Amino acid sequence: ELRHRASPWQRNLGYPLAMLGLLALTGISVLIVCFHVLELLLDDAAMPRGIQDASLGQVSFSIFGSFGAALQVVLIFYLMVSSVVGFYSSPLFTRLLPKRRDTPLTKIIGNCVSLLVLSSALPVFSRTLGITRFDLLGDFGRFNWLGNFYIIFLYNMGFAALTTLCLVKRVSWAVQAELIRAFGEDG
Fold first, then answer.
1. Which of 9, 27, 107, 123 could disulfide-link to 136, CB 3.0 to 4.6 Å?
2. Membrane-spanning residues where (predicted)?
């Protein structure tokens, strides 16, 4: 219903651009994680431990300078939004989704706790995937398991594989549905 009420500009330009943007952000995230996996295999310094002597402003946290730092911010924001959307889309937590003017206090508290846990995990998540090396004003590099190569390697490989699988599945199903619709109307 929302699609039918959307303007032609929104349908023909806005939605495809938004989809291309999401595909680009997902692809960039997977490429960065794959690059981080290669770094993990070649260099022990790629492990997401705390930064010892790097002062803020003296050392660049991105190899691409300001553009890389801006890209990291956009990717972290994208991961935050996709985590929240994925959380509320899972069958276990769809009942927790608040409803306008009809949300009990216990559900509001559950949402606050869920969002707090997701936002607290985001810095560790982004460091573990190699998206950023910045400590985000907390020394998240002190976790002992962040020094375990196998956990970090499997976490990165799992993220890259599952994200690629979801991306290919989503894109191929959309293309498949359009082909069926196009050939179904002609035949």
1. 123
2. 12-38, 58-88, 108-125, 145-168
Per-residue H/E/C for the chain: CHHHHCCHHHHHHHHHHHHHHHHHHHHHHHHHHHHHHHHHHHCHHHCCCCCCCCCECCECCCCCHHHHHHHHHHHHHHHHHHHHHHHHHCCCCHHHCCCCCCCCHHHHHHHHHHHHHHHHHHHHHHHHCCCCCCCCCCCHHHCHHHHCHHHHHHHHHHHHHHHHHHHHHHHHHHHHHHHHHHHHHHC
Rounded distance between C-alpha atoms, residue 87 and residue 116, angstroms: 13
CB-based contact 131:76 (threshold 8 Å): yes
Region of poorest pLDDT, from 93-97, 116-120, 132-136: 132-136
The Cα–Cα gap between 140 and 133 comes to: 10
Check if the beta carbon of residue 120 is closer than 8 Å to that of residue 30.
no
